[in-house]
Amino acid sequence: MMAAFPLFERYPRLACVARRALGDFPTPVRSLPKLAKAVGTADLYLKNDGVSARAYGGNKVRKLEFLLADAVEAGARAVVTFGYAGSNHAAATAVYAREVGLQAISMLLLQPNASYVRRNLLVGLAVGAELHEFRTPTALAAATALRLARARVQTGHAAYVIPPGGSSPIGTLGYVNAALELDRQITAGELPEPERIYIPLGSSGSVAGLLIGLAALGHRTRVVAIRVAGARWASAASVQRLFDRTVRLLREKDPSFARLSFPAVQLEVRHDFFGSGYAKFSEEGARALRLAREHEGLSLDGSYTAKTLAALLADAAITPGSGPTLFWNTYNSRDLSSLVAGTDPARLPARLRHYFETPLQPLDHEN
Ligand SMILES: *Cc1c(COP(=O)(O)O)cnc(C)c1O
What we know:
By secondary structure, the chain is an alpha/beta fold. It has helices spanning 6-10, 33-39, 60-73, 88-99, 115-126, 137-155, 169-187, 205-217, 236-253, 283-296, 305-318, 337-340, 354-357; strands spanning 29-31, 44-48, 78-84, 103-109, 130-134, 160-162, 196-201, 222-227, 267-270, 325-329.
């Protein structure tokens, strides 16, 4: 039996939108008492999308449930997506594309080295994704045009293009549902209504979707979005664009869906924990990562979630008496060692092998 899906229950007309159940929802919420005590704050909670699915968790699963269903419905045989070399999104897409019978093609860009980069590359390789790395966005764009043309000739079908991070309006529906899912957990008494939700801001889909769901429900919760990618991609403007496009899609599918206007006052984009660049681990992040592991047994990553928790902890230290705060973990918590066991990095395309031959960045304390 299909588990209840809050978005479709609340808006039955949206049930015409294709969705493939890939994850385990609702994801758990719990309080973080030891971490809260360590930093001198009161009400701290976790929404753990790290366990959003068995094979590979994290925030991309919610988006992929819609994106891959849309790709299958469109008759595609392959999906093409984009990211930096260690992209959690590209790895998750590879895992779940195979599950629904699609070939995954990852067009990747050079990035700073880290253990998780190696692991995600091996995941892609293990599940049979086609991996390509480029030094510049221009080279990537040219190769993508060629690859798309070749896919059409070879299979007779257009490949389905998934934008970076899965943040199209279709993908963003997954996070509209996430807000409705959280609302049910609040109603059930699993946590109080948070005053603030801390979540990373990458390609904007998670934040835009949450804001739509919260606004549709009339929640006043503020979303504190910690920018972890270049300001050109991640900004209040990028969130607003995706918010508006996704509301338009929702209203096309269900005209009774409210004509929501962007709740600018509910969104706080923070640029001060980005550090020195995308996927460059920061000292504050490394400290937050250590605290989460020591006090709550929670594994974070240096590129996204550690920077986000660092912001939360810094704010809690300044205003310890503020209301319930929710940390939204977007990073895969599943152990991938059996998935990648026996996968030999020597089988990677030559251009990607350098991640296994050059040192990790100094703050990579994962092992
Ligand atoms: C992709 C990703 C994000 C960013 O989410 P967006 O919806 O792209 O803004 C955050 N955390 C992790 C671990 C991710 O992989």
